[in-house]
Please model this.
Amino acid sequence: MHSFHYINSVLHCEGVDLESLSQEVGTPAYVYSARTIRDHFRALQKALGSLPHRLCYAVKANSNLAILRLLKEEGAGFDIVSGGELFKVLKAGGSAGQCTFAGVGKMPHEIEYALGEGVYSFNVESEGELDLINAIAGRLGCKAPIALRVNPDVDTPTHHYISTGRHKNKFGIGLDRAESLYERAASLPHLKIRGIQTHIGSQILRAAPFLEAIEKLTPLVQRIQARYALEFFSIGGGLGIVYQGALASGDAAWWAQESRGEKLSAHDYARHILKPLEQLNLPIFLEPGRFLVGNAGVLLTKVLYRKETPEKNFLIVDAGMNDLIRPALYQGHHDLEPLVAPDDRPLEKIDVVGPVCESGDFFAQDRRLPRMEEGEHLAVMSAGAYGLVMASNYNARPLPPEILVNGSTASLVRRRQSWENLVREEI
Ligand code: LLP
Model:
């Protein structure tokens, strides 16, 4: 279901030759496939079938305006976590009325901005936040729509940095405290209870924890719904994707699999959760991020140097941890594919590292790859989610450009940052 494949030995994104594109725009550069994003969006819609639902794209995964616009056209709402993300959604032609506003640390000016724009719901994560939203709404003379994010205390099989559904995590309100906080919300004059929300983590490849969270929350949802006439139950995001072997299998949206051999398709995910959700008789919101855009993006990079030492061999490439931090931060695996297919090249065991001055700046360690020479290009696969959005200017490296491919058209949707712009805000 993704649109990266070799044609005449050259890696293409849809109809665009990535080797020629690399030479044209330079590297490092992010490239996204519009078709893949649409396919994944539609696959998830289809899997959810007749369940009354709405997909609120988790903007944090990739907030390029062109991608927001594309998803808006598909009918997505948006899950945002900052005033900046709301600003971007509005810039992309979306409206605040399509946005749920998540996050444990909403700032007063962000709350005021979102209220002024008419945000659909604040997903509230603490008592203090509830009081602050009530006070700001009072000052503005309006009622703020809210949902409580409830933490179901379930174990999620994922990297511990992106697991959010345990009571020890900073997220949400404990199951045992949620009902009294709803009572408090109902007693505050400037709040309107709109929904209930949960999110247990990210890159999850088993249906069981999602189901467990839904089942744990169901009695509460039913009680709250009876008292306050809820408009939605959001079950968050978190559906994982293929990071290994996606190119070979070609059906990433359907079969997420890890090296451990676990699999979870959109269809299977839906099949497990549909029944208990249908019984609730309440519109269900989902907040997918990675699932929609993860396999839809690659980071193109060039081999600058081969460095061979008695201990190890290195390919030093021109992309670094500042461009894609997932391997350094989460030990995330990304497949690496040469842009020109390596039919007759020998395999070698090698580290692929960036130019940044840290030993954590690597894309692969001891990876078996076809031998690559200086000047050749490769693609860091499945970099469409949590790639450029987490990039930084560390080592005063400008942010890379982004290109959106649609069929055989490649459009520059973010230009490469200039050195001048590196210092623009400095005084
Ligand atoms: N909803 C909420 C409230 C979230 O916190 C998140 C992600 C999502 C939805 C979307 O989750 P997804 O469907 O993308 O799994 N930077 C990390 C992932 C951080 C996820 C943060 N929250 C990574 O690169 O793996």
